[in-house]
């Protein structure tokens, strides 16, 4: 069993964390270089190209070749990272849905979808996708499989729906249409329909609860992310109380107390069960008051 709360997270957990970091970095970099390549290609089709000197044209083409090589490298790495995540998520779910990882995982895939099928996809339309190993259709299929793989996990669905930066119900309506267009497996298309409905329901519930708990006392809020805590813990060297998942994410990449930079591991944090109970009682009172009014 994977115990992420161990002083040193299991090697597999560290591997998945690094793989997620790689996927974010490589796909972002690949897309940035594809945008640059598209601009360079458009220049060759514009009147500006005719006005360039021979030397400038040679420099322009050399720049295009360099950008292309870099884009290809990042695309190859991104394709493999997403493929591995798709495979692993079909067999092992607890790492991806753990409180220390789930928000980041959901936000990452939502962001990738927006870039791949959103309104700005046109910025990535270089002349020859194959020349740069850019495989948007396969990326969309693999990412969709990850949504389906993790769609039976409430924590993941809540995280997807709670991603205010990228999630909208319309994103998954569009995803379904794209999957049909690129001839994805029927099981993937049907799976996306199912999880999209769950995401939408959880998004509506989140909006309702955010309004309900908007006036939470400051002592109930995580000082780092200003969110209502559900599992508060005390950091022993700084005496700060934070949400457990917040500090788990932090120490996974930086094993130091963020408030005083002293060494910190998860076995050192102290659960604040009394405060957790107070928060739960306050939330229940707010819910009951909303029902009665």
Characterize the structure shown.
There is one protein chain. The chain is built from ten helices and three strands. Helix 7 runs antiparallel to helix 8. The chain is mainly alpha-helical and 293 residues long. Helices cover 63% and strands 3% of the residues. Strands 2-1-3 form a three-stranded antiparallel β-sheet. A hairpin with a 4-residue loop joins strand 1 (232-235) and strand 2 (240-243). The protein has helices spanning 11-44, 47-51, 54-91, 102-117, 136-150, 154-161, 169-181, 186-212, 244-253, 273-292; strands spanning 232-235, 240-243, 270-271. The model has no long low-confidence stretch (mean pLDDT 92).
Which features does this protein show?
globular; 3 strands; mainly alpha; single chain; 293 residues; 10 helices; three-stranded antiparallel beta sheet
């Amino acid at each position: 069993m994977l115990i992420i709360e161990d002083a040193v997270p299991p090697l597999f957990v560290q591997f998945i964390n690094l793989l997620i970091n790689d996927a974010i970095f490589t796909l972002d970099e690949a897309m940035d270089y594809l945008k640059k390549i598209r601009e360079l290609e458009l220049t060759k089709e514009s009147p500006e190209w005719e006005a360039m000197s021979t030397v400038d044209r040679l420099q322009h083409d050399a720049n295009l070749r360099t950008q292309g090589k870099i884009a290809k490298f990042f695309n190859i790495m991104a394709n493999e990272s997403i493929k591995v995540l798709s495979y692993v998520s079909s067999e092992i779910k607890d790492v991806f849905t753990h409180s220390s990882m789930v928000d980041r995982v959901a936000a990452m895939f939502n962001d990738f979808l927006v870039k791949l099928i959103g309104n700005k996809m046109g910025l990535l339309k270089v002349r020859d996708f194959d020349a740069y190993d850019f495989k948007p259709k396969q990326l969309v299929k693999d990412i969709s499989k990850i949504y389906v793989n993790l769609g039976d996990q409430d924590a993941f669905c809540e995280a997807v729906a709670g991603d205010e930066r990228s999630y909208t119900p319309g994103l998954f309506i569009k995803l379904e249409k794209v999957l049909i267009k690129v001839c994805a497996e029927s099981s993937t298309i049907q799976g996306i329909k199912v999880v999209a409905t769950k995401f939408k329901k959880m998004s509506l519930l989140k909006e309702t609860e955010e309004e309900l708990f908007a006036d939470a006392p400051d002592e109930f809020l995580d000082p780092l992310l200003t969110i209502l805590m559900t599992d508060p813990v005390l950091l022993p060297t700084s005496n700060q109380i934070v949400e457990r998942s917040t500090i788990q994410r932090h120490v996974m990449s930086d094993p130091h107390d963020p408030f005083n930079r002293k060494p910190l591991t998860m076995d050192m944090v102290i659960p604040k069960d009394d405060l957790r109970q107070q928060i739960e009682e306050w939330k229940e009172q707010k819910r009951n008051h909303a029902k009665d009014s």
